């Protein structure tokens, strides 16, 4: 399914002659005649797409950017709703009157939500354009701060989705881990990382005690703020039997007020 979602998102960009970054999801929505209904809404609300049979139109309700809700995350949310609009099975449900408040940015366990997330990531960061853009930005590998900079300035996307995309595009050996309240929610590993047997981090288990991420969770205050942490860690801290004996470089940061933290692992001394 993932492949067909990626193909679909690329087809949308090609068909609408929007094959260049940054991709503007608002522009795509307008082009499709989708009504956009921004609002302040509650803290927990991200976005929702609905079909209005009376006027035969789709409408996307979404919470405006603001403190703790960066522009990139809002745009990723719109890309997610476009996923529900374009993926045929999702669209059928909408036409039947089904609706849900979305939980985008790879925070949900619902397969349909994740499918809409994959669509959004691929729509806003098509692989070929993403890789070319990273190469233009940096000849060497990126730090987490540089990935954030690209998310904010080049792609206008969420940090989580951009870091995940960076990892999936195989630009270098790295892993991305997202944790919530000190517990690993998910992780992805690049091909080069997998080749070194660093391909498994248990979900729903506490982050390793010796990791920098554990230190980040220890210093997080009630508002969800903590300074980012970084440093060298033994590869065994994160992985059971790595074929890589040297140290990893670990960077971790809190993701605004979401209650999630992002960890970026790379090889400190690639062999
Ligand atoms: Zn959704």
Quaternary: single chain
Average pLDDT across residues?
Answer: 94
The top-level CATH class of the largest domain is Mainly Alpha
Which strands sit side by side, in order, in the main sheet?
A: 5-4-8-7-6
Strand tally, please?
8
Spans where pLDDT lies below 50 across 5 or more residues = none
Coarse morphology: globular
For the record, give the distance between the C-alpha atoms at the N and C termini, rounded to a whole number.
Answer: 35 Å
Bound small molecules, by name, code or SMILES, are: zinc ion
Helical segment count: 11
Characterize the biggest β-sheet: 5 strands, antiparallel
CATH architecture of the largest domain: Orthogonal Bundle
Order of helices and strands: HHEEEHHHHHHEEHHEHEE
Structural class: alpha+beta
Strand content: 15-25%
Number of domains: 2
CATH fold-level name of the largest domain:
Arc Repressor Mutant, subunit A
Describe this structure in words.
A hairpin with a 5-residue loop joins strand 7 and strand 8 (260-267). The longest helix has 16 residues, at 71-86. The protein folds into two domains: 2-124, Arc Repressor Mutant, subunit A (Orthogonal Bundle); 172-271, 2-Layer Sandwich (Beta-Lactamase), CATH 3.30.450. The chain has helices at 2-15, 25-31, 71-86, 88-95, 111-124, 127-137, 144-155, 159-168, 191-195, 212-219, 235-238; strands spanning 35-39, 47-52, 57-63, 174-180, 183-189, 229-234, 247-254, 260-267. The strands form two sheets. It has a five-stranded antiparallel sheet with strand order 5-4-8-7-6, with helices on both faces. Strands 1-3-2 form a three-stranded mixed sheet, covered by helices on one side. The chain is globular, with a radius of gyration of 19 Å. The protein is α+β, with helices and mostly antiparallel strands and 271 residues long. Zinc ion (ZN) binds at residues 80, 84, 100, 102, 113, 116.
